């Protein structure tokens, strides 16, 4: 599921909701002025077949309209029966040789994902082939759009299950070049393929480059890829401590977010093994798994603070999707976690840091209405922070489109700048904005 709230930034008759599904019954809806939705799937041109997974709204050709990427998983047209040899885990004492299990995705064929261009009239054209997206067959589960090479166009990082991940570099809004292997994000630090699931992107060390994160299945560890600034990345999972903590976990939903509003991006991970019988067949691996929370200590250091972050982190869950948003509008991001076959978890942020913040709702006019790709900068006591407004991320989830800028203990912000994405070249600046409140900034008009 991937949606975008209609808050009156442009025309009220806008794309609002897409639902991905299996087997190919994707839903595409428009939101009306009265808050209801109209199913326009049949006339939209969006017809992704097979098993659709994560969907991402972003403007790939910088024409000011939001396009849609739909990740495609495996060819599941002929269901297979799996035994020990082609399932997760291994033989355990007391388990019959002929018992069947969850099928590992490695035994299924990959499929091409889809990219749909927004024609601006309620119709989308499938441009997967001409842009190069269809040329790479994968087993996509997670996807995030971010400008990883700072060229002003949004790229795509796509996690693949049991095969190499894809990094689609956007070449001038016309073609995507798949560079996962030479970029260093296709494989683990050990050079092995992984079971990529949830993904996200953020400049977690504030060096100006968008870093990448992907969660994998147990025994593989998760990967945090540092952006070297030359279209290559290094896996820092060992040096950051991410590898040791995640070795026996399987990660799905995840998000870089600043939970304590100190201006640095922290990280939350939702985990759960895909095989509900794994407890009987593998030592140390369980179906229900704990959530993890990492605090950004600065200078690229991440500290596991799960044990001190509340009772919910002491539980175990079959977690899948994860979405971040400010549910009670107090300026501190909350978290919703979907569990497999159960009720969702709602993690309300208690705001114990008492740090200050500024919330932004950005409305593009020349640029795309959600301002995806905008560079946000804010100065606190002469220290400049920056953030890119990315799209997508996590696993089959959609996040609050508002941005919360952490201010820390300071009681004054010098200024906030919005560098709007192409086709706009505009920079809007707000001097000495009010803190601890949400601001709506319209491109070219300032605070509304």
Describe it.
The protein has 448 residues and is mainly beta. Helices cover 5% and strands 37% of the residues. The protein has helices at 41-44, 128-131, 180-183, 237-240, 242-246, and strands at residues 2-3, 14-19, 27-31, 37-39, 52-58, 67-72, 111-112, 114-118, 124-126, 137-138, 140-146, 155-160, 166-171, 175-178, 199-202, 211-214, 223-227, 233-235, 251-257, 266-271, 292-298, 301-304, 319-325, 334-339, 345-347, 356-363, 375-380, 383-388, 391-392, 403-408, 415-419, 427-431, 438-442, 446-447. A five-stranded antiparallel beta sheet has the order 14-13-12-11-29. A four-stranded antiparallel beta sheet has the order 1-2-3-4. A four-stranded antiparallel beta sheet has the order 5-6-8-9. A hairpin with an 8-residue loop joins strand 19 (251-257) and strand 20.
Name the shape in a single word: globular
Query: What's the mean pLDDT score?
Result: 90
Low-confidence stretches: 4-8, 10-16
What's the alpha carbon Rg, rounded to whole Å? Answer: 21 Å
Q: In order across it, which strands form the biggest sheet?
A: 14-13-12-11-29
Largest sheet: 5 strands, antiparallel
Q: β content, as a range?
A: 35-45%
Helical proportion, percent range: under 10%
Number of helices: 5
Span from first to last CA? 30 Å
Total strands: the figure is 34
């Amino acid at each position: 599921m991937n949606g975008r709230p209609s808050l009156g930034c442009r025309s009220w008759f806008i794309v609002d909701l897409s639902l991905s599904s299996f087997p190919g019954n994707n839903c595409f809806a428009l939101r009306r002025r009265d808050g209801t939705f109209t199913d326009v799937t049949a006339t939209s041109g969006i017809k992704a077949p097979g098993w659709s997974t994560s969907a991402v709204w972003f403007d790939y050709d910088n024409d000011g309209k939001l396009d849609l990427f739909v990740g495609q998983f495996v060819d599941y047209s002929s269901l297979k029966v799996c035994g020990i040899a082609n399932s997760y885990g291994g033989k355990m004492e007391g388990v019959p040789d002929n018992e069947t299990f969850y099928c590992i995705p490695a035994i299924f064929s990959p499929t091409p994902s889809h990219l749909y261009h927004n024609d601006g009239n309620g119709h989308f054209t499938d441009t997967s082939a001409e842009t190069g997206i269809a040329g790479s067959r994968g087993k996509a589960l997670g996807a995030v759009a971010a400008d990883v090479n700072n060229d002003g166009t949004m790229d795509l990082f796509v996690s693949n299950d049991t095969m190499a991940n894809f990094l689609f570099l956007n070449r001038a809004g016309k073609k995507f070049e798949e560079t996962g292997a030479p970029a260093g994000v296709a494989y683990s630090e050990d050079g092995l393929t992984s079971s990529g699931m949830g993904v996200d992107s953020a400049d977690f060390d504030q060096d100006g480059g968008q870093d990448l994160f992907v969660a994998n299945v147990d025994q593989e560890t998760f990967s945090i890829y540092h952006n070297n600034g030359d279209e290559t990345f290094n896996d820092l999972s060992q040096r950051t401590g991410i590898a040791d903590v995640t070795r026996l976990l399987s990660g799905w939903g995840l998000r870089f977010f600043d939970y304590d509003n100190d201006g640095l991006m922290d990280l939350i991970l939702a985990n759960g093994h895909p095989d509900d019988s794994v407890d009987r067949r593998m030592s140390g691996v369980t179906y229900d798994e704990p959530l993890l929370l990492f605090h950004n200590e600065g200078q690229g250091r991440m500290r596991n603070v799960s044990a001190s972050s509340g009772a919910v982190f002491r539980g175990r869950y079959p977690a899948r999707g994860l979405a971040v948003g400010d549910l009670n509008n107090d300026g501190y991001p909350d978290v919703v976690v979907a569990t497999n076959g159960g009720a969702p978890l709602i993690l309300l942020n208690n705001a114990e840091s008492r740090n200050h913040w500024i919330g932004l709702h950005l409305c593009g006019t020349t640029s795309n209405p959600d301002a995806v790709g905008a560079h946000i900068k804010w100065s606190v006591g002469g220290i400049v922070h920056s953030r890119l407004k990315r799209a997508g991320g996590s696993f089959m989830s959609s996040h609050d489109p508002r941005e919360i800028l952490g201010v820390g203990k300071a009681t004054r912000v010098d200024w906030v700048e919005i560098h709007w994405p192409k086709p706009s070249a505009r920079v809007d600046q707000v001097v000495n904005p009010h803190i601890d409140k949400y601001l709506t900034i319209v491109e070219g008009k300032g605070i509304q």
